[in-house]
Design a protein that fits this description.
452 residues, 21% helix, 23% strand
């Protein structure tokens, strides 16, 4: 192998009423969250400005076009992209679920909470998602006033003051590059007990919410959390179809399930684009293997958001799981990352993952761990063209099997601190070993692209 150094960069990134039925068809109840969530209050301050990188190498400052909407890639529904731009990668907080209802409720239904401070804390870290629910009453994990209705009563209709406040927060998220994961229903939350059908009241609720907020480009609609607790698959499909018909901007529509990897009931549903996964396993390897299985089962029909893992953790342990999930073919949202108590460094770890992935054509890749050799743990690849290799603790060279001979651009990346280095190599063998350069730590990612 002939090695030619081009450039070395060393960069440290500064970087979601009440107990009895109110009327026929209106449901009430209570249930806990099997995902093990808890709510918290308080927040730290913000950070410096930052955003996702384009397809120009991990160190690029290029990003999606201003206002670029997140959409399903029409040529490859296994991934999302920016409308008119490059691929989109997600890594961010899978909390706080009570985001919309934090703080004291005012007389007009609005809240005196820390929402703006939470957004400011995420801003500039590169982390790019927040996960919350609109209806947390009626059996969900919230109190009786955790819904957007006048006097918390669905019969009174949506409260314009509440929606106006949400609009302000959503504008701030959009300005910070944060994708809104808007769950209509919390786990076990159900207002209208209409069996498999979407009744007139629920249809009006869904359509009015969609009409109010569909102008936001960084938005994913999610039907329900742990839908099986209160809804049939047919009801979920009908809710998704109602959202799809009302949404004139082709936003992504997702469904979240209880623990497991099966999505057979929605795999070919034309209104459902994303499987929001709950998968409670302890190790990065187990998470990775689960995502590889789910990616294979999807067969390109929908994309994966690994949105709840009860043992995700914090710090370096969480970062290893983030990368394990990404190399398994899924997006990342972190259960327990409530922002208020989250270390800024954990948010920045997410931002570095987003930055690296969006600098590559990962949307043309699939998991190919059979190509790993040497210290390489996992591989995403478009064989013959581009590869991402990752090692959690490389004690030697990273390796890739079955490469075409030729010259390759290599972009090295340190997930722990964002340090980068680029080089070109000419291969003498189809099974290639690449020495990790000085300045890059033992946790290492490598993007390798065969030059024309």
């Amino acid at each position: 192998m002939v090695r030619s150094w081009i450039i070395a960069l060393s960069t440290a990134l500064a970087l979601a009423a009440c107990g009895d039925d109110a009327s026929p068809g209106v449901d009430a109840g209570a249930a806990g969250d099997a995902g093990g969530r808890s709510d918290a209050s308080g927040a730290d301050g913000g950070g410096s400005d930052g955003g996702p990188a384009g397809d120009a190498g991990p160190g690029s400052d290029a990003g999606p076009p201003p206002g670029g909407q997140i959409i399903v890639d029409p040529d490859n529904p296994a991934w999302l992209r920016y409308r008119g731009g490059g691929p989109f990668f997600l890594c961010g907080p899978g909390d706080p679920e009570d985001f919309l209802y934090r703080g004291t409720r005012n007389a007009d239904g609005t809240r005196d909470g820390d929402q703006s401070a939470l957004i400011a804390k995420v801003d500039g870290t590169g982390a790019n998602g927040i996960y919350f629910q609109a209806v947390r009453s009626h059996g969900g994990d919230g109190s009786a006033d955790h819904n957007p209705f006048v006097d918390s009563d669905p019969a009174m209709g949506l409260d314009p003051d509440i929606l106006d406040q949400w609009e302000g927060w959503f504008d701030a998220m959009e300005a910070a590059g944060i994708v809104i994961h808007f769950f209509f229903y919390d786990d076990s939350a159900r207002i209208w007990n209409t069996g498999d059908d979407v009744g007139a009241e629920e249809r009006a609720f869904l359509e009015q919410i969609v009409d109010r907020f569909e102008h936001h480009p960084l938005l994913v609609w999610v039907v329900a959390e742990e839908y099986q607790e209160r809804y049939s698959a047919a009801r979920v499909s009908n809710i998704a179809a109602t959202i799809r018909a009302a949404d004139g901007a082709d936003h992504v529509i997702a469904v979240h399930k209880l623990g497991g990897l099966a999505f057979d009931e929605f795999a070919d549903d034309p209104a459902i684009d994303q499987f929001a996964i709950q998968y409670n396993v302890a190790t990065p390897a187990a998470l990775h293997d689960g995502m590889v299985t789910a990616f294979g089962d999807a067969r390109g029909r929908y994309n994966l958001n690994m949105s709840e893992s009860a043992m995700h953790g914090t710090g370096a342990a969480a970062r290893l799981k983030n990368w394990a999930i990404a190399l398994g073919g899924a997006y990342v949202m972190i259960l327990g990352m409530d922002i208020a108590s989250t270390a800024v460094s954990d948010l920045e770890d997410c931002g570095r993952l987003v930055r690296f992935m969006e600098s590559t054509p990962f949307d043309r890749m699939e998991p190919h761990d059979e190509l790993a050799m040497g210290a390489t743990d996992w591989v995403l690849a478009n064989p013959g063209d581009a590869y991402i290799a990752y090692a959690a603790a490389a004690a030697g060279d990273l390796g890739l099997r079955g490469l075409d001979l030729g010259t390759y651009e290599l972009h090295w990346f340190d997930p722990a601190d964002g340090d980068e280095l680029a080089e070109t190599v000419t291969l003498a063998s189809t099974d290639a070993s690449f020495a990790v350069p000085g300045g890059i730590g033992p946790e290492v990612a490598l993007y390798a692209r065969r030059m024309p």
